[in-house]
């Protein structure tokens, strides 16, 4: 999706702006997340605790999960900043800019707080994944996760509301307004994924089968980040996609018209049809049928002379 965004920017002739930069940073952050997803599955996340190599894999599963939590908040912040800076670029009015700046301030402040508590949820930090440390103080990971999700949903709602006043005032048809609002409201899908992810937090404090109970939260976190990467690209490339689909549709229609014009229909039947229609007549059914068969090749008119009753008759 990032490549599609950059291609669209290249063909439109516009320079990269801050919204593009934040999506590039988000894509870079996704690289270690993909590596962690592979490693944590190898170590046994999703398996029952008694099915893994407890001595070598148990600590690693928690370490990778801890890193995923931090990456989740960083990536989520970058993607939302991408959308808010897109508003600053395309909407010139003061109201929208003011709302966008307010959204940026709320987003940065809330995510800095949540990310801070995620990183330093235990004292010492190593106690998050190293259960051999007995002298430790830890916050509830469930409460941190719920707070982070609440802030994310609030930020998504702000991003959804910001363009509504501007789009409502546009001098375009109601159907086009709905289309534009749908384009910007597609981020509500991310809210849906976040709401599906939220109930999995209840199992985060379940230490009876942790490698199994952590898996749903991990999977839905990755799903939410992937969906946000796709969704944030669509408003920026919508015009590029519209032009591309228009050209494809035009080419298909042109090809369809061309295939309907056969050799017989073009060179013989066409002129005959135009002459007959000019005289208020219609093309005979047999000739009309023949025009649809390109495999017939050129039509040759042959004159046959026969004698009947002493008279010569010509038939074609």
UniProtKB/TrEMBL annotation:
It is a multi-pass membrane protein. Residues 4-241 form the Rhodopsin domain. It comes from the Eukaryota. The keyword Ribonucleoprotein does not apply. InterPro entries: Rhodopsin_dom_fungi (IPR049326), SAT4-like (IPR052337). One of its GO terms (cellular component) is membrane. It is found in: Membrane. Keywords: Membrane, Transmembrane, Transmembrane helix. The chain crosses the membrane at residues 21-44, 64-87, 99-120, 140-166, 178-198, 218-237. Its main location: membrane. Belongs to the SAT4 family. PANTHER family: INTEGRAL MEMBRANE PROTEIN-RELATED, PTH11-LIKE INTEGRAL MEMBRANE PROTEIN (AFU_ORTHOLOGUE AFUA_5G11245). This is CFEM domain-containing protein. It comes from Diaporthe helianthi.
């Amino acid at each position: 999706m990032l490549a599609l965004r950059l291609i669209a920017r290249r063909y439109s002739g516009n320079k990269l702006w801050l919204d593009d930069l934040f999506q590039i940073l988000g894509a870079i952050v996704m690289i270690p997340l993909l590596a962690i997803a592979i490693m944590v599955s190898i170590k046994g996340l999703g398996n029952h605790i008694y099915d893994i190599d407890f001595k070598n894999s148990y600590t690693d599963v928690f370490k990778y999960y801890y890193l995923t939590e931090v990456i989740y908040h960083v990536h989520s912040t970058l993607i939302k900043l991408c959308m808010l800076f897109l508003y600053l670029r395309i909407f010139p009015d003061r109201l929208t800019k003011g709302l966008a700046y307010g959204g940026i301030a709320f987003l940065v402040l809330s995510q800095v707080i949540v990310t801070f508590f995620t990183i330093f949820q235990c004292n010492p930090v190593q106690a998050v994944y190293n259960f051999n440390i007995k002298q430790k103080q830890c916050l509830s990971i469930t409460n941190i996760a719920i707070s982070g999700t609440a802030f994310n949903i609030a930020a998504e709602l702000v991003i959804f509301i910001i363009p509504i006043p501007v789009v409502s005032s546009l001098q375009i048809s109601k159907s086009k307004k709905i289309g534009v609002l749908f384009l910007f409201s597609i981020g509500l899908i991310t809210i849906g994924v976040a709401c599906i992810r939220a109930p999995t937090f209840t199992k985060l404090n379940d230490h009876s089968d942790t490698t199994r109970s952590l898996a749903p939260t991990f999977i839905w976190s990755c799903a939410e980040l992937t969906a946000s990467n796709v969704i944030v690209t669509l408003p920026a490339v919508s015009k590029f996609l519209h032009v591309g689909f228009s050209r494809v549709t035009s080419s298909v229609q042109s090809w369809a018209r061309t295939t309907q014009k056969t050799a017989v229909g073009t060179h013989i039947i066409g002129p005959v049809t135009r002459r007959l229609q000019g005289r208020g007549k219609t093309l005979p059914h047999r000739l009309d049928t023949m025009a649809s068969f390109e495999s017939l090749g050129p039509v040759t008119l042959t004159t046959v002379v026969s004698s009947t009753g002493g008279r010569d008759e010509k038939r074609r």
